[in-house]
Automatic annotation (TrEMBL):
Family named by the database record: Belongs to the UTX family.
Name of this chain's protein: Lysine-specific demethylase 6A
Residue numbers spanned by region Disordered: 691-716
Keyword Iron listed: yes
Organism: Hypsibius exemplaris
Cited SUPFAM superfamilies: Clavaminate synthase-like, TPR-like
Amino acid sequence: MDSKEGIKEDPIKSIPGLSLADQQRIQDFDSRHYDYLDMSVPTLALISKALAHYNALLVQEPEKAKQPGASLLNPQIFCRLGHLYLLVLEWEKALACYQTFYIKSSLSRKDPYFYYGLGLVYYQLECYLGAAFAFQHALYLDPGFARSNEILFRLGLIFKYLEIYDVAHRFFRRTMTDPSPFTETKEMINFHIGHIYELQGRYETAKKYYEQVIQSPTCDNQLRADVLRQMGWMFHTVEDFGERSMREGQAIKCLTKSLEHDPNNGQTWYFMGRCYAAMMRVHDAFAAYRSSIDKSEANADTWCSIGTLYQQQNQPMDALQAYVCAVQLDKTHSPAWFDLGMLYEGLKQFPDALHCYQNGIKHGKTAATPSIIQRAELLENSIKGSFAAFDSVPKTLPHLEEALALPIAAELTAGHRPPQTVKKTSLLPEPSDNIALSNQQMQVLNMLKQHESQLDPAQQVLLATLQAQFMVQQQEQQLQNNTKTSASNNTVSPATIQALKDKPFPLLPFASSTRLPLSERLEAMDELIRKSASEVLAECSSLEYGKLSSDHLKLNLLNETGLPPTPPAAPMPHLPKSALHPLAPSVFVENKKEALSKDMEDYLLRQPCAILKNLSNVLRLDLSLFSTKTLVETAPDHQIEVRTQKKQRSEDNFDSSNSERIWKCESVRNWSTVSKYGMYQAQEFQKALQEDSENKSISDSDSNNSGPSKKAKKSSMIRFGTNVDLSDTNIWRIQLAELDKLPPLVKVKAAKNMLSHLDHTILGMNSVQLYMKIPGCRTPGHQENLNFCSVNINIGPGDCEWFCVAHEYWGVIQQLCEKNDVHFLHGSWWPNLNDLRNANVPVYRFVQKPGDLVWVNSGTVHWVQALGWCNNIAWNVGPFTAEQYYLGTERYEWNKLQNFKSIVPMVHLTWAVAVNVLFEKKDEQMWKLVRLTLRRSMRYCQVLLEHLKAMGKTAKYQARDKNENAHYCKDCDLEVFNILFIIKEKEKDSSEYVVRCYDCARKIDKDLKTILILHQYRVKELMEIYDRCVLIDSSSS
């Protein structure tokens, strides 16, 4: 009776016309039921009645609000509506309801079902970074979330789409071991993992995964057909698989098997045609292309390939018609325009050829190669003012205007069907349609380019053809990486999607700029901080161990609520535009006393960044110890990471076509040695000297010539030698000893440096790394790991240009990254200075000369570009300030939310600091922050050990070895302090034992029966360290 009365009293739960059972069923519906609910007619009718009731309540709400004392609706109704609209695939309405719930109720911040539903909506609306953000919130709040597998799989697809392949692979790998329900199959996961390896150029590994999927007895026919098609195309395009004819045979075999499972797939038939064309089986190629057109929507790629085939068979009229069909279907299809231009040019119809080249350059989706642009300019100059003469030449083909005026071929409209709609965005791999040049063709291309001025017309046509094919080949990787998405089941207005992509992430929970200062927040927690260890653990005595929820088994270093941190809102009021280009703080160090002074330390700690000039001179630092010559003499075979980048001005960051400014900063990672990169540095320097000499000669010649000046050179690819590890004292003893001359604040190892209290090396953090550069090498935008400060010295002989933004603006930059479809933490980005100016972000811009030391304070966002040939050395430091410690713990939790590994183990570091450091009264804020972390960590260890004991599990004591590295969970990359869950790897021939966290261990074995549990500190030890960590009187110290 009481339960009935309760339902009637609550208008959200009491729905007229529904039985109590149906009302309870409606209350049970939430985002977890997406894809898991039988959407039968009765279920849809039930949801429809609930939606009508809730919307009626909302209509009445404005009138109720006018009545004094009236009880208003619980904002939870908007979350209920969001869930129900999600289940019936009404994406826009679901989004509006979820947003309203977020605005009206703080409960949304603690609701993983809300975040999951929001993530699904963003995913369907193709706002992938927003979806990732929401999904990660759900897992942060509840690591054991009922739909964690669905989240992990979609996160894998999202990061694959973003081309962050290592992160995508990690999510797919976690999906394989997660026991929660899942709508996809393991074969589908392996397909995506294989495709990641293919996109990374690891073709043999990709092939193994594809074969594993194909051979699986539980693989469905559609997926098997997709994998066989992908494998066939890989055989066709990748030379690593052997001789051409053998590869084409394997490709045909795979594609034939694919068609056995899916005979109506137009793309498979198209790929078959490409393979036959490469084998010169012309009749079979035409038949395959015909089948492709018959079985799928009209495709410009197919008609362009047919045109190429006709052109090879010396059938120019047929080739013309095919190319025209391609550009009629897609006016931005660059290869078709360029091929058509070459066809006209080969037949000496130069005005038509020029128009084709110009159309491809102006309207094409893919960029024209420099050779095509040069060809168009040459034709334009040749026929300028002579169209009449060229028109009198007998023509083989109709003029371009006549050809384009012909009606589109009937077979195109017959084969055209509107795109199919599917329920979910698939993000499945779509192979690109470009043929890679063979080694022989590349040799011919290089030979023709070397003798370009001596070529006859036929050879010029061949050169242009090969260059066009090479251009298309260069687009191959980019096209493969851009996985396409399918349309959603319900229509979404273009305005909605545009708003999501153009505006900042609508639900990014920016921290209020009016929140209490750190000192006031710590003061409010003073009583809590000063409790003894026994008092802290006594708080846990009422817990029901063995039945604890995930809320009690999580460690959050920032707060007791378990909520993640939020990016800061832009500081207010906005600065005037005249203040957005501040001068960088700079100090010319006069003498050693000034360099080592406390005033210098205090000055640096107050600045977001600073340049110390003349420091190396007054301290007599021998920077030649870090020169390329010394490095090569000391360790010529030392490994170096090499990044291949596009050379651009520091203000610019263009896409691959050099037509649009973007934020994404692309580079290709490889490995080399110090000696090889040193040789590259020297060669580039000599090349630059030679070019300068040639340019001077040209300049002298041009001074007497009134002709047009030469155009700027096209951008080139350069190599950046990064992350050279100098931590080994056996190799770099002299170099490291030289750095001991530096002031304590900026030393690699010093008592005042938090990172020196770690008893193991973290490469590049508490050890030195070196960077070898030529002009244009750039370090993309970032904050240092866990917001620690950094020190950078330019060895020279060239300069570097720096851009820095104070940490208060990192939330704005993170927002701009998402707007530009690049991930702030996992992605690589180069900010657009105009975007920063429009967002009222002040940027320090300055040049670092040889010998200059650049200080980057806690959390400062920065990016760097070399202006000359130089080496740099850098490392991180952690000053003992409350701000540094707080920003570190805040980023630790933010990294946890973003699935980004914190390479500084903050919990381990805090306990080490507590053991080693005596805190004086002046360090009180820092001490309070350390005590809070110790309190939360100690309490977590006690609760987890008691919980395990109640489950019948015993954690064995095994003391931590001296200098033992901190431990991280293999699956989720979280730091695992004290209590380790050890699992033997199941891979074949593996005897490796690895560490997991509690949540990931339970996903592998819910009852922990097969898992060894160790603890490295007894709770009593932690209590003693905690109680000894007190403030001391500075006079007694």
